[in-house]
Model the fold of this input.
Amino acid sequence: MAERPVRWGILATGGIAAKLAGDLAEVPGASVVAVASRAPGPAAEFARRFGIPRAYGSWAELAADPEVDVVYVATPHSAHYAAARLCLEAGKAVLCEKPFTLSGAEAKALVDLARERGVFLMEAMWMFCNPVIRRMTELVADGAIGEIRAVHADFGIGGPLDPGHRLLDPALGGGALLDLGVYPVSFAQLLLGEPTEVAAWARLRGGVDENTGMLLGHASGAVAALTCSLVADTARTAAVTGSAGRIEFPRGFFHPERFVLHRQGHEPEEFSGPGPAGSFAHQAAEVMRCLRAGETESPLVPLEGSLAVMRTLDAVRDRIGLRYPGE
Done:
């Protein structure tokens, strides 16, 4: 018997919304039936581009559409909370782009609402749904590298960015930390859990962080050394080092095609995964699996994990003195 189709609505029309709309074509049973923007023009153009039957000039119309099963929130960070809350209150399942929200308090409010209403909610941390990342976590859990001692990860872009770019706008939650740093932090916490100690330094300019370093300490004695940047094209690699070996990811660790396992006394082993590494299809398939199974949270991207990451990002912002308008 064929699985029931899942009907998607897309809230916002930027580049990441277009990425999901295109990649959903790879997912059997997925159908994009509606798109919304704050104005009818962008929504109509997006709908024409992707062959979407309905375009709305307001978020509320999308949230009220009875033929939408799940809404993908693809707005800038500053609007995640309002958009996701609107959809959850309308009873719609939500896949919300990362970072979940601007703050841990906003994230907790969304999680509390979703749980109260019994509605599915998931942060779009697509890295966790990547088969290569999932294989890595299995190996680590099986003791392939022993007890984890350290995690290293970086994500930086070299720029220069246009002065009007959203990453330079504090009103949109700009800066390196929330857009790029969320990946190294999430990667580290996938392996080590929430840290007990957080140290950080950043260069701030124009109300956003442009070059940031973080050192996370854990009760186990493990450390995570992480960086993110808007002014340096870093290697974008990651490594997990344990008492009996290490795992190394090449450039693009957050959507990897492969990794190399180095174990003491063994030749290096390379592991690779299926399909295009940069596809959002894996996370879309996980959302659809959960909806079909009646699950309101994903075990691959658990809400408690997303909340823990937001608490760490809050702590980093506290250490570097980063505040957004209205805070």
Notes: Residues 303-320 form the longest helix (18 residues). The two ends are 51 Å apart (CA to CA). The mean pLDDT is 97.
